[in-house]
């Protein structure tokens, strides 16, 4: 049986393919998203967040298979760790493949990737058949948006579409770990956003 909001996810997928920037609920905070290959949309998000492209952005997908093409060389054990951890609220910094544009990876030979368990993120990425950009919905120095009201206060009409839905039960933005070193870059409880 189809998800009751499949029609909405298909509409959001079409909007993303047309270059729109969306806001959508994730496990812990509202996110801003677009297609990673659409540089003008990525640039809009960076401008909204007052963030340099050099810092990089997160890609979020619905399955390991969906994000696998964005991951460079990793070991069988590292692949197994990703598959055991995902879907879930942990973002991994992984070696980037040639498929990842510089405006996503920033000044790094790695890219931040997560497979989300959130039904809205899953639905959007399933309809698209690919991952999207995922970054916390907040201008630099402000707390990530936890409600549609906060989104509207921060961004007014700069967001093309707000996908209805509820935040998951996580407190704050996702944890970020470096896959190769195991280092925790950002703990899950920090509210600074990505």
Automatic annotation (TrEMBL):
Catalytic activity: L-threonine + hydrogencarbonate + ATP = L-threonylcarbamoyladenylate + diphosphate + H2O
Main location: cytoplasm
Entry GO terms, CC: cytoplasm
GO MF annotation, one: double-stranded RNA binding
UniProt organism field: SAR86 cluster bacterium
Localization per record: Cytoplasm
Stored PROSITE patterns: YRDC
InterPro entries: DHBP_synth_RibB-like_a/b_dom, Sua5-like_dom, TC-AMP_synthase, TC-AMP_synthase_SUA5
GO terms, biological process: regulation of translational fidelity; tRNA threonylcarbamoyladenosine modification
Family: Belongs to the SUA5 family. TsaC subfamily.
Name of the gene encoding the protein in the UniProt record: tsaC
Domain named YrdC-like: residues: 6-190
Keyword rRNA-binding: no
Lineage of source species: Bacteria, Pseudomonadati, Pseudomonadota, Gammaproteobacteria, SAR86 cluster
This protein's UniProt keywords: ATP-binding, Cytoplasm, Nucleotide-binding, Nucleotidyltransferase, Transferase, tRNA processing
Protein's UniProt name: Threonylcarbamoyl-AMP synthase
Protein role: Required for the formation of a threonylcarbamoyl group on adenosine at position 37 (t(6)A37) in tRNAs that read codons beginning with adenine. Catalyzes the conversion of L-threonine, HCO(3)(-)/CO(2) and ATP to give threonylcarbamoyl-AMP (TC-AMP) as the acyladenylate intermediate, with the release of diphosphate.
EC number of this enzyme: 2.7.7.87
């Amino acid at each position: 049986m189809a998800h009751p909001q499949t029609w909405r996810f298909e509409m959001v997928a079409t909007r993303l393919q047309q270059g729109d920037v969306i806001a959508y609920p994730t496990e812990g905070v509202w996110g801003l998203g677009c297609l990673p290959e659409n540089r003008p949309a990525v640039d809009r998000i960076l401008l909204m967040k007052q963030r340099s492209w050099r810092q990089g952005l997160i890609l979020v997908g619905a399955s390991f298979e969906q994000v696998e093409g964005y991951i460079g060389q990793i070991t069988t054990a590292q692949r197994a760790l990703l598959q055991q951890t995902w879907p879930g609220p942990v973002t991994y910094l992984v070696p980037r493949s040639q498929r990842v544009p510089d405006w996503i990876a920033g000044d790094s030979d790695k890219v931040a990737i997560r497979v989300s368990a959130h039904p809205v993120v899953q639905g959007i990425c399933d309809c698209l058949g690919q991952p999207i950009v995922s970054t916390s919905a907040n201008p630099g120095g402000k707390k990530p948006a936890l409600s549609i009201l906060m989104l509207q206060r921060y961004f007014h009409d700069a967001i093309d579409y707000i996908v209805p839905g509820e935040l998951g039960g996580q407190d704050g933005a996702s944890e970020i770990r470096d896959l190769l070193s195991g280092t925790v870059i950002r703990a899950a409880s920090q509210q600074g956003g990505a």
